[in-house]
Amino acid sequence: MKRRAFVKLTVAGAAALPFAGCGTTSPDPPGPPGAGRTPLFQVTDIPANPWTAPDHHAGIDELIALMGRRGLKFYRSPVTGDEAGPGGLIAADDVVLIKVNAQWKYRGCTNSDVVRGLIQRLLEHPDAFRGEVVIVENGQGRGSLACDTSSSYGGNTEVHANAEDESHSFLWVVDHFNDPRVSAFLLDHLRLNFIAADDHAANGYRRFENVSYPCFRTAGGRRVELKEGIWTGSAHASNLKLINVPVLKHHDRGGSEITGALKHMYGLVSMLDGQNGFRHYAGLGETCGKMIAAVHTPVLHIMDAIWVSHAALTGAPAENTFRANTIVASQDPVALDFWTARYVLHPIDGNERHDPDYEGVKRWLEAARTTIIERGGLRDDARGIAVGDPTLTESDMAVYTAAPGSG
Asked: How far, in Å, CA of 285 to CA of 333, rounded?
């Protein structure tokens, strides 16, 4: 079987596809997910030209519809609908941070078409969105939201976004919307500036145990303090939401071996807080787990597998990337990393280092899971997070699949 045909079969996970040991993997029937199982939402066969209407991405639109059919409403609203309800994820007054990978460019960074489609749906909140959307990243001194970083590219500073049009960088997306509710903030220049717990003015990083997190003022004038929330001048408000949008890809030998939802949290910590050696890589799982469970739990993780870089974390050259035309989302980053590594990344070339049972991956996935459980799991009713304990057991996962236009 040719690689492309094999990956399409494996990734699609159509009904009756008998993955050994896998949980429920099926097309999307109506109704809530099975009790006690962690749902993963997969959209396949996303067209190369994903635009179904201005700024409407076919994959993102289908994902939000699929989640809604399974009981996870994207919009928080007093009015219940197909994609909205009182227990939904995003309220009309939320400040939404979209964490992207922008340390690299080409297909080593998050697909900006996916981000553009996500922003459009946030702005279309049924209760009239009056909050703010901020694209964020800390590339640890090598990041660029213009997708023109020269790191590992021999000094090349040309713009090469991971998009159908490579000029459509994250900053292009912000300019394209031309909306005061949409902005971007590169955290690289803050990574050396550490501030005290009572400093609500300076942009910088705050230390917490052996991790750190950013505090900054958005273009809209709101004070974001990632762990505590939105500083109002006298207290912290809870209307801060994080959507984690990593690109699925290979990582270096002896590192994490794969990059997904968990490893993506390295782009929110400052590597200059004194723990760099520990994080690379003995403390990988602990760091990711602590950032997610003790600093700020994302309301949703959306794995970008439009293009999968299976042989180089930089996303170049082209022969090291594979077009899977897929996105997969979950509130459980451990399950999401496990499942997408096994059924999206690993089948591309059969590299054993991309199998989540490979010791170099399994060890830190288990450490992340343990840390999250020790910190109380993934549950926050006020923000619509209801996972409980993350899982690495396939029988505890319910994977629901749809393609654009199939709902």
From this structure: 12
Packing angle between helix 170-177 and helix 112-123, nearest 10 degrees? 30
Closest CA to 104 of 281, 277, 218, 246: 246
Cβ pair 169, 145 in contact under 8 A: yes
Contact (CB, 8 A) for 325 and 45: yes
Q: Position of tokens 């890589």?
A: 281
H-assigned helices in 267-358 = 276-279, 284-290, 333-340, 346-349
- Write out pLDDT tens, residues 351-391: 999 999 999 999 999 999 999 999 999 999 889 999 999 99
In one letter, which amino acid is 354?
H
Q: Does residue 32 or residue 202 have the better pLDDT? A: 202
One-letter amino acid at 137 equals: E
CB atoms within 10 A of CB 323: 14
> Closest Cα partner for 229 from 221, 220, 237?
237
The most distant pair of C-alpha atoms in the chain lies apart, rounded to whole Å, by 62
Neighbours of 197 (CB within 10 A): 12
The single-letter code of the amino acid at 193 is N
Helix or strand holding residue 75 (H, E):
strand 75-76
Query: Angle 317-322-327 (CA atoms, 0-180°, nearest 5)?
Result: 125
Which residue type, as a one-letter code, is found at position 353?
Answer: R
Q: Which residues are within 8 A (CB) of 346 and not within 5 positions of it... i.e. 6 or more apart? A: 354, 355
DSSP state letters, 273-325: SS-HHHHTTTTHHHHHHHIIIII---SEEEEEEEEEESS-TT--SGGGEEEEE
Compute the distance between CA of residue 400 and CA of residue 407 in angstroms, rounded to an integer: 12
Structure token digits, residue 90: 């995003």
* Residue at token pair 């984690």: 244
